[in-house]
Amino acid sequence: MSLRRLLLVAPDTPLKRLMATDLISVRVETDQEDVARQVASYNLLAIPVVDEENKLVGVITVDDVIDVIKDEATEDIYRLAGVSSDDHIFTPARESLRKRLPWLWVNLGTAFLAASVVKLFEGAIGKVTALAVFMPVVAGMGATRHSDADGDRPRDRAG
């Protein structure tokens, strides 16, 4: 019940008539992302947390939800970049290399594959030199589309 409603009713009105019984609440075990979604979808400033007996355990405020959203967005960005959430600028180079080396090998393999495809068209490129100008453009378009698709996935999941 809002403070405004409590202050504006007649003093002899029983609280039972004022209280809301269809409250939006979350259970203790509810995932933090689900809580954030509920707060956002119902435009709440706070949401009560209840136990299995529907007894109030605590309250999650919108500033807590904002922190969760920031953390989840950071985690998604790290995942898109192929970096684990515990890998930061101060991570030792050897450890960072160990985590990234498999993907670097995959990247190197695809680069060699692309070079072999270019080799197949060496004759055509030799005859029409202008085609060589478009090779980085086509490669860049593929990389851009890949990163666009990766960027769309977290937004799609968010709703």
Can you walk me through this structure?
- This protein is mainly alpha-helical.
- It has 7 helices and 3 strands; from the N terminus they run ααβαββαααα.
- The protein has helices at 3-8, 15-18, 32-41, 62-80, 93-120, 122-127, 130-158; strands at 26-27, 46-50, 56-61.
- The longest helix is centred in the last third of the chain and has 29 residues, at 130-158.
- The chain starts with a helix and ends with a helix.
- The relative contact order is 0.06.
Write the layout of secondary structure elements.
Layout: H1 3-8, H2 15-18, E1 26-27, H3 32-41, E2 46-50, E3 56-61, H4 62-80, H5 93-120, H6 122-127, H7 130-158
Parallel strand pairs: 1-2
Antiparallel strand pairs: 2-3
What would a concise description of this structure say?
Helix content is 64%, strand content 8%. The protein has helices at residues 3-8, 15-18, 32-41, 62-80, 93-120, 122-127, 130-158; strands at residues 26-27, 46-50, 56-61. Helix 3 (32-41) packs across helix 4 and helix 4 (62-80) packs antiparallel against helix 7.
